[in-house]
Amino acid sequence: MEVIEGEGERLGLSLQSSPIAPRERRSESAERTVLSPRPSLAGLRVLAIAPTSFFRDYGCHVRIVEETAALATHGIESTIATYPFGRDLPGVRIRRALKLPGPEHIDPGSSLRKLSLDIALAARALAVAWSERPALIHGHLHEGALIGWAVARRQGIPIVFDFQGSLTSEMQDHGFLASRGPAYRFFRALEEWIVHRADAVITSTRNGADVLVREFGIAARRITVVADAVNVHTFRPLREIAGEDGSMARTERLRRNLGIPERVPVIVYLGLLAEYQGSTHLLRAAKLLDERGIDAHFLIMGFPGEHRYRALAEALGLGDRVTFTGAIPYELAPVHLALGDIAVSPKLSETEGNGKLLNYIAMGLPTVAFDTAVSREILGDLGVYAPRGDWTALALEIEGLIRDPAAAAERGLALRAQAVAEHSWESSVESLLDVYSRLLGAG
After folding, report:
1. Confidence class of residue 245 from pLDDT cuts 50, 70 and 90?
2. Which helix (H) or strand (E) holds 81?
3. Are strands 77-82 and 159-163 parallel, antiparallel or unpaired?
4. Which of 236, 253, 174, 226 lies closest to 429 in space, CA to CA?
5. Backbone phi, then psi, for 245, in 5-degree steps?
6. For a tag site, which of 19, 75, 97, 312 has the least CB within 10 Å?
7. What does the pLDDT read at residue 286?
8. What is the DSSP string of 174-213?
9. Which of 340, 13, 424, 220 is nearest to 4 (CA)?
10. What is the pLDDT of residues 129-181, one digit of tens each?
11. CA geometry: angle at 424 spanning 421 and 425, to 5°?
12. One-character DSSP codes across 95-129
């Protein structure tokens, strides 16, 4: 299937090519910073391999589509080879693998069913590479890097591995793999083999780069941090769009439709619902705030575990304090986040990125997170932190922001300014362009 018709306004994207002139720019790698001219890459064809149900409305999918949009502004033509199911997007060229028997969806995380899907995806990627003749392969996630390596070897072209966290750590996070057993050793060895096959490795965080060097022995010169970023033109605070036609009315209508009480602080969460995301910790923090007499409402937006966590909220007596929305289309995320006064991310994983934090800060939301290297890398000194896994401390930090709304608002303003200055895709994509240019120049 190919999807290239239409405009990208629904996602705030513009994938039409608009080449830019060569210019002086700064390229940041895991090892050093250099200053040099770069030739235009306009017209370059890239085959991206995404071993997932692209597009669904969560983390790594957002990175893929925003990265693709940012590359398109430099005239780079990307084709995304992916699983046979997912949501098609206007302006995005998608080539899907052959449909196989079974359910037409697969939840995030590890699954034996992915093996057959990856085989079908490999066949599709080989066919696309043969017909479209890309100059470079961009493999997302470990399976994408493995498939991409095979395709790149056949085509005689370089491959970039987009590392978004440790494969074995993710399998442990999802309860698919026990620590240190025979299966762990096998998958750890496979992961190490995969990361050493790529011509270049990019990662969304410095923490990810450190993991690659420390745990897998990748030379720092082969790693480039292409930081997760956010479309700061789409994700904007309500105060900035208040004058636009109907924006306030839409927000208030959404509040009523969701049953969120007026004049009550709203704490928002947007992302996957799972134990490694800290979903139970979040609900226990909400329960403690309720017991402490703090009037607040939690708007929890995400999937796939909404039924499980809604039942837990009911069991904790939080039925009227929490609203679960299920999956929120990415293009509707800004208006939903605009309902919030405070954002929260109790993510427990220590190797994955945390892109939701960027959406939060672009919206100007003061943000409470568990204290991890990735959280600090994104939020810096403006974040509010609780010790990792401590839901009591998480509740108390949220309470502190509720009790001092003026300070919370000031923190949100500073975070918005930080997002615009440091976390836009216009800036982040430059590092990826440097990687492409270096590999193609070497070729």
Report:
1. low
2. strand 77-82
3. unpaired
4. 226
5. -55, 120
6. 19
7. 98
8. TTSS-TTSHHHHHHHHHHHHHHTTSSEEEESSHHHHHHHH
9. 13
10. 999 999 999 999 999 999 999 999 999 999 999 999 898 887 887 677 777 78
11. 155
12. EEPPP-SS-S---SS--TTHHHHHHHHHHHHHHHH
Structure-block tokens of residue 123:
């066949």
- Confidence check: pLDDT of 329 > 70: yes
Contacts of range 384-389, beta carbons closer than 8 Å, 24 or more positions apart: 384/411, 386/346, 388/348, 388/350, 389/278, 389/281, 389/348
The pLDDT value given to residue 442: 57
How many Å apart are CA 337 and CA 269, to the nearest integer? 8
Name the token pair of 318: 């939080």
3-state secondary structure of 371: coil
The answer to which of 46-55, 80-89, 108-117, 172-181 has the lowest mean pLDDT is 172-181
Is residue 424 pLDDT above 50, yes or no?
yes
Distance (Å, whole) CA 209 – CA 202: 8
- Beta bridge partner(s), residue 384: 368
Please choose, from the candidates 92, 5, 63, the residue with its C-alpha nearest in 3D space to the C-alpha of residue 330: 63
Question: What's the CA gap between 351 and 306, in Å, rounded?
Answer: 24
What are all long-range contacts of 369-375, with beta carbons under 8 Å and residues at least 24 apart?
369/344, 369/345, 370/278, 370/281, 370/345, 370/346, 370/394, 372/207, 372/347, 373/205, 373/206, 373/207, 373/210, 374/205, 374/207, 374/350, 375/345, 375/347
Tell me the average pLDDT across 236-256. Answer: 80
More confident call, 334 vs 37: 334
Tokens in use for 414?
Answer: 């500073």
Tracing tokens 């839409």 back to the chain, one arrives at 250
Instruction: Report CA-CA distances (Å) from 241 to 29, 232, 249, 251.
Output: 36, 12, 12, 11
Q: CA 66, CA 40: separation in Å to the nearest integer? A: 20
Q: Residue 174's pLDDT is what?
A: 66
Q: What is the mean pLDDT of the chain?
A: 89
* CB half-sphere exposure, 206, CA atoms < 13 A: 11
Tokens matching residue 160: 């970039």
The DSSP element (H or E) to which 337 belongs, if any, is helix 333-337
Over residues 97-120, the pLDDT tens digits come to 999 888 777 877 677 788 999 999
Place of tokens 């897998």: 216
Supply 386's token pair.
């609780």
